[in-house]
Amino acid sequence: MQSQTWQQQQQQQQLWQQQSPPPQQQSQTDVVSGEQYRYALTNFRIAHEKVEQQRLQLEEQERQVAALRARIALLEGTPSGSTTASSANGNTVDDFSIRSAAAHLDKLINRWASDVLRTPPQPAPVLAAAALADLAQDSAAPSPATSPASSLRTHAILRHVLAEAVAEGALNTLAPTNSPAANAQLTRLHAHLLARAPPAAAAWRRLTFSAAVQEYAPAMMRGMLAEHAPELARVLLNHPLTPGEADLPLPPPLPSAVLSAALDFARMLHGGAAGDAFYRAFVPEINAGLHPGQIELVKRCMTSERGGACRVGATVFPGLVKVGGGNSTEGKEETQVVVRRAQVICDCALGGGSAGTTAA
């Protein structure tokens, strides 16, 4: 009996030794050194601090986005609690960025005209006469003989002729390529699509501009000047634009930066517009009537304040109209919303004196 009991104890001890890990292995599994523990604790604390920092950054970004949305809603005239992108007058958030880009282009045009008059290549009356000749409005526009070309009037007329070139040469033309002939054909095709199916025209326009050139060649800008301001370019350079110089950059004082920015603005305008809307530019003619819904006076008009009727002296930046964007179909009149009114100086303000006081 004792031998059997002893054998059973030996068997149980062997079985326990087989099931239990060696002492060294058990200590390696269950026990870590103090250095490893402190290292793990430090890494955990650093990771926790980074997560907390990211959480605070996300909260700050959310507050900034909310403030920006409230600011956009205020500028667009929508209620601050509204989450929709459109407002009652048809404007969208995209219109805000368009107006901002237009304001930047307006500053470039103003700066170019100021630089030209600061160091004029020709006398002011010669520059004004060349600009008026390009506008092809000699019958309606005042001639230098009857209306002296003051610095203020010459400055405004230079801005007017460049606004006309920007509107007709860039904003009202689809220019996804560096080929004027191809751009003209694409513009005609788009006009045909827009008249029949505005949604299809919008989809085609976005697809076309997704493959547009990222940088326009000098020939594009020379073509704009040759078509819309050839006489002014000739006076500024003392020689006409020649086809042999088509690949050369525009030399100063030609508005190279302005035309490049105008083409970039047109690409953003036509390739990134929201919905089915299409944007067109308009330039009120010299001596046209003052229509408050279409123009914005950049200088006070004393004649209108006294109850008289004044006229457009010069348009210093074109206006923008959004065409469509709703449920327009063929046969129905398309809706038009003035996104940015044309910037105009009235005729009496260009006459000098107290009539040209800057508006507040």
UniProtKB/TrEMBL annotation:
<keyword id="KW-0175">Coiled coil</keyword>
<feature type="coiled-coil region">
    <location>
        <begin position="41"/>
        <end position="78"/>
    </location>
</feature>
<feature type="compositionally biased region" description="Low complexity">
    <location>
        <begin position="1"/>
        <end position="29"/>
    </location>
</feature>
<protein>
    <submittedName>
        <fullName>Uncharacterized protein</fullName>
    </submittedName>
</protein>
<feature type="region of interest" description="Disordered">
    <location>
        <begin position="1"/>
        <end position="31"/>
    </location>
</feature>
